[in-house]
Amino acid sequence: MRRLFAFALSALFAANLSAQRRTEFEGRPALVLENDRLELTVLTDGGALARIVLKDDPERLNPLWEPARLARELGQPNRFGAGTGHFVCVDGFGGVSPEERAAGLPGHGEAHRQTFEVIEAAPLAATLRARLPIVQEILTRAHRLVPGENVVYVESELESLLGFDRPVVWAEHATIGAPFLAPQVTVVDLAAGPSQTRPYPPGQASRRRLASGQDFTWPLAPTKSGELVDVRAAPASPDLLDHTTTLLDPNRETAFVTALNLQKRLLIGYLFRREEFPWLQIWEHYPEGRTLARGLEFSTQPYDVPRREAISLAKMFGAPTYRWLPARSKIGARFLVFLTRVPEGLRKVDDVRLEGARLVIEDRVNGRRVELAASRGL
Predict the structure, then answer these.
(1) Does the predicted TM-score (pTM) go above 0.70?
(2) How far apart are CA 276 and CA 170, in angstroms?
(3) Which of 206, 253, 260, 302 has minimal CB crowding within 10 Å?
């Protein structure tokens, strides 16, 4: 009965909307999905989730990273090319070997550079598909909204066209940006297990505040001077570039990462299956000016490194650093992204979980709880 009622609501809402809106985002073709709570912009050129806003927000504040806009406002060139918002890195996450580069394989995989075919388009749903010609894979992404919900459901399928098993690397390169991301205002929380600062050569230490290659317990990371610093928020005077990685809590079936702007009480977050994405890399890009960006990149490997390096590592903290794609077969992955206002006094996120058809968000320290309808589950 509940599913029938939800279907009837969906049909009624869809009937009152015009056909799927096609638009452009920073000059790139895109689709707009919307319900009564959210508006989501998905690029057909690259497949990124480029913009998500609350329909009742007078500011229309997009928490996701918009490098082209930020560069334009500062009169600077956009150094990040096709990267924007939340894009998918498959099959590849990070740089490539000299041989792969010579063969035309780009960094972060092929998907974010492909033009996706739109195979389903409706006000509440869009399904996109792209062939990845070098790695010989097909990626299909389905996006769903439900009336009355602050949740986007994203389901992906990766199909191998080759007749042998091979390891693949896959990351959801979710990135938040200014002005939602502000120093000592926007805080990040996650379902953390053991963590590590990224190892780097001595010649790359100038803009780093964190020590190289040190294990730590989130969120207190070791600095180069030997102190511990809370990395939930950007520093008051940002001018640095740092990375950390975290093995998401092995005791959980689902894992989460959230970003909360404490002043605006606006929260964006992700919930996903830990077996599909056991790692979370945080890329802190905090240059001078207003171009702050922070990657919340859930993935099959701890760092964005070439495929050969990820597979040679094999395991870290006892967890695998790649995923198998069997011969002429398909593997899948799902996640939820949610955007909501939170009550006064909610200062951090200790847990995000599904309870039936509800998404529960808890700040146990301050005794605050948010429940969102999440009828499709994970």
Answers:
(1) yes
(2) 9
(3) 206
Beta strands in 94-206 (DSSP E): 117-122, 125-132, 137-144, 151-160, 166-168, 170-177, 186-190, 192-197
Distance between CA atoms of 279 and 313, rounded to whole angstroms?
14
Query: How many helices and strands, by DSSP H and E, does the chain display?
Result: 4, 28
- Specify the fold of 2-373: Beta-galactosidase; Chain A, domain 5 (2.70.98)
Q: How many CA atoms lie within 13 A of 123 on its CB side?
A: 17
What is the CA 61 to chain-centroid distance, rounded? 17
The amino acid sitting at 325 is: L
Is the bond into 238 cis (omega within 30 degrees of 0)? no
CA distance 260 to 80: 24
Buried b (16+ CB within 10 A) or exposed e, 27-54: ebebbbbbbebbbbbbbbbbbbbbbbbb
Burial class (CB within 10 angstroms; exposed 0-12, middle 13-18, buried 19+) of 143: buried
Say how many Å lie between the first and final Cα of the chain, rounded: 20
Residue 362 burial (CB count, 10 A):
18
Q: Give tens-digit pLDDT for 116-148.
A: 999 988 899 999 999 999 999 999 999 999 999
CB distance 290 to 70 below 8 Å: yes
Rounded CA separation 344/20 (Å)? 36
Rounded to whole angstroms, the Cα distance separating 189 from 256 reads: 8
Sequence-distant (6+) residues with CB within 8 A of 289 are 74
> What is the DSSP secondary structure assignment for residue 306, as one 8-state letter?
-
Domain ranges of the chain: 2-373
Q: Please write the tens of the pLDDT for every residue from 198-229.
A: 999 877 777 899 999 999 999 999 999 999 99
